[in-house]
Amino acid sequence: MSAADQQPQPPQPAPQMPGTDPVVLLLLLLVVVLVLGGTGYLCVAHPSLTAPIAAVGGVGAALAAAFGVVVAVRRR
Predict the structure, then answer these.
(1) Is the pTM here over 0.85, yes or no?
(2) What distance in Å separates the CA atoms of residue 47 and residue 41, rounded to the nearest whole number?
(3) Which of 27, 29, 39, 52 is the most buried (most CB within 10 A)?
(4) How far is residue 13's CA from residue 17's CA, in Å, rounded to a whole number?
(5) 50, 43 in Cβ contact below 8 A?
(6) Model pLDDT for residues 3-47, shown as the tens digit of each residue
(7) Closest CA to 54 of 42, 69, 66
(8) Cα–Cα distance, 32 to 35 (Å, whole number)
């Protein structure tokens, strides 16, 4: 093959980040609602569990926030 036989390649567009699948978002929302609903029920039905559930929720919120920051920094 000579240089004359080769055709120039058109410029390739930059790869874009794929969007989040709507089904995944719907399932995530469903899980969040069910977990919050179950937690609320446990707190109302069993008041003695309110303090341990609040402690676990506080730690979970901190871990979720840290995980979100890590994911956001890695995507840049």
Answers:
(1) no
(2) 10
(3) 39
(4) 12
(5) yes
(6) 556 776 777 776 665 666 788 888 988 998 998 899 899 999 999
(7) 42
(8) 5
